Structures are given as C-alpha cells and as structure tokens.
TrEMBL record, chains A, B:
Superkingdom of the organism of origin: Bacteria
Record carries keyword Signal: no
InterPro entries referenced in this protein's UniProt entry, alphabetically: DNA-bd_HTH_TetR-type_CS, Homeodomain-like_sf, HTH-type_Tx_Regulator, HTH_TetR, Tet_transcr_reg_TetR-rel_C_sf
Identification of the protein by name: Transcriptional regulator
One MF annotation (Gene Ontology) recorded for this entry: DNA binding
Pfam families, per the entry: TetR_N (PF00440)
Organism name: Mesobacillus subterraneus
HTH tetR-type domain mapped to chain residues: 3-63
Length: 211, 211
C-alpha cells in the first residue's frame, strides 16, 4: 500500500512539474492528483524540494545503470559498446518520457542541485564516453576526434527528441512516445557512429582487431 | 535616448529571466536593473508578457534572417548551402548567447506562445532545411535520408551548446562564449554534414554537377 502511494506521488509530481512547472505546483496539488494525504508526501519526501531531489536521483541512477550496462561490453569493440550505451539510454528515456523531459529541462538551469548532479553523474558519464572513444581511437575503429566535441554532439543527439517533444511531434511529426521510436532513433545514432566516428575498415576487421 | 532605454530594458529582462526565471522576475526588478522607470516598460512593452513576446520575436526574426541568408546560396550546391545556414546560425547564437539560452529553454515548454512560434518560424525553418536536403539528394551530393530525422539531428546539434551552457562549460570545459567557439563548432557541423549526409564523391565533382 505504502509503496504504491509513494509511486503515485512521484507520478503526480512529474506530471504537474511538467505541465505547471516546479514553482507553479504546490504540495496540495500533488496530494490531490495522487489521491493521497499531504502528510504522506512529508513522510516520504519531507517537502517539494525533497520530491525534486528524488526525481533527479531516480532518473540519474537509472540512466547511469543503462550506460554502465552498455559500457561493460567494451571488450567486444568500441563501436559495438557505444551502440549498446546509446541504445540503452534511448530505450530508458522512451520508457520514462515524462520524467526525462522534466529532468532534461531542469538541467538547463543553473542551480545548486544541478551543480551537484553534474559533479557526480555527469562526470561518471563523461568518464565512460571518454574511455570508449579513446579505446576506439587506439585500436583503429574510430578516427581521431576531439573527445569533448564528440561528447557534445552525442549528448545533443541523446536529449533532442526528449527535451523538445512538442517541436518534434508537431513540426516534424515524429512521435517519441510511440514504441517503434526507440528502435528507429537508436538506428539513427548507429549511423551517426558509423558516419562520424568510424574509420573505413569493414566491421569484421574491427572485431578481429579487438580480440 | 529612448532607443537606449528600450535596449537596456531588453538586456535587463533577458539577464533576469535567465537567472531568476520568467515567473520569478517582476517588472520592478527589470526597471531597477535597467535603471529606468517602470512606466517606461509599460510604454514600450505594455507588461511582462509583452516583453516576453518581444524576446521571442527579436530572437526568431534574427534567426530566420540568418537561415535565409544561407538558404539563398542553394544554387552553389546543397553542401555549401547547408554549411552557410548552420555557420550563420551558430555565429548568431554565439553573438546572442543569453537570449538564445533563454529562448531555447522557453521553447521546451508547452505554451500558447510556443505553439505560435512553431507554426510560423519553425515551419519556415523546416521548409528551408527540407528544400536543401531534397536538392542534395536529387543532385547526388547527399545520400538518401529521412528528412525528418535529419532535421531532428541538425536541430539537436544546433541547440546543444547554447541550451546546456552550464554542462558544456563545467563538465566538458568547452566555452561557447569564447570568440573561437563559433568557428570551431561550425567546423564540427561541417564534418557532420560530410560524414552523415554526403556521398563519397570528391567535392569538385559535386560542384560541377550543380552547375
């Protein structure tokens, strides 16, 4: 029972933060939408800020898990590994589309919590991307690139359809909440890896080189 | 004198919207920072919403101008033209980095004004990108691609460093406000066009084909 009401509070909060903004949402609004007593919210999250922190933590713990799962396949080659990492993140963001949108928007603001998130989760993320890119450049799978600018592009591609769902849906008529989107977009990112990062060698050679 | 105070009001508003948020900023705050009387703000912009609308209009008129300038070079080939369009936008966004950041963030919210902007400026933008991409696919400069997904990637790359300045500066140590950034990033986008869109032909052949 308690577990359900915790989840219901989170869902209600994410919905309201996305539609009315964090500042425009009161604890009372959240309680009403989640159909719980406001005291429940205090019990689980203390206050609205506690809820916000929980949103960040839940999102980034899951996000980093997905990256790490992909990263653990580095021994099979950098192209393969990067494809796994990006595919996992795209699927994760599709499955948590409301939370993702809210968090990505919050991350564009200069606040204390954003600084903390960056110095923990984003630094770990950068470490993994850097390792994969460096390994690929060393073993000849990838062309020489600026690591920073490659991560910059990667991050831009990963967030675009989730942060700008309105634009993507209404101007481009691409629907990120549809089930096929994760596959389609992962395929686009896969082409990006091939076109931007990879050297011209046929892929079976690459695998041989990493063995 | 009047013109200066109008510009001062805009500058103050953009700064405060970026740091305190639109809702967290009062007309009185703006007047104080711009060192003008609050009545001046009413005179030029009616109210805070008028100021917000003006921010959108100023930004997107300039943005579209830059795209159009680039678009007018389509006769010289699609790769050349797209490079001009992207280079112009990057330079424009660098020159108006505070306004760009604010507008890009506002565009992620689902509001009446955002819908209006999308149905005018973004539809025009999509039209131009579509024309350039189609022309390139027809004359053999570009490989066959989904127009929508290509625009999706393009837009993601164009906004990333300006929307996520905090992340880009503090995690990647890339400084979008430095003067060399516009050139460096335009060069990255140029590589993106080559790696993702272009067919393998040497570029002198491409130019011959379009003549």
């Amino acid at each position: 029972m308690r577990k359900n009401s915790k989840a219901a509070i989170m869902d209600a909060a994410i919905y309201l933060f996305n539609t009315k903004g964090f500042k425009g949402t009161s604890v009372r609004d959240i309680a009403a939408r989640a159909n719980v007593n406001a005291a429940n919210i205090s019990y689980y999250f203390q206050n609205k800020n506690g809820l916000l922190e929980n949103c960040f933590t839940v999102f980034f713990e899951g996000y980093l898990d997905e990256l790490e799962k992909g990263f653990s396949s580095l021994e099979y080659g950098s192209e393969y590994c990067l494809n796994q990492m990006l595919g996992n993140v795209v699927r994760y963001q599709c499955e948590n589309i409301q939370l993702t949108r809210f968090i990505l928007r919050e991350m564009t603001i200069d606040s204390q919590i954003v600084r903390e998130i960056m110095s923990t989760y984003h630094v770990k993320e950068r470490y993994m991307f850097k390792k994969v890119l460096e390994a690929g450049m060393e073993n000849g799978e990838f062309k020489k690139h600026s690591i920073q600018y490659t991560i910059l592009q990667l991050k831009g591609l990963l967030q675009m359809p989730f942060l700008n769902t309105q634009y993507v849906t209404e101007v481009l008529h691409v629907l990120p909440h549809e089930t096929y989107f994760a596959d389609k977009y992962s395929h686009e990112l896969s082409n990006w890896i091939k076109g931007i990062l990879c050297t011209e060698q046929p892929s079976h050679r690459k695998i041989l080189m990493t063995i």
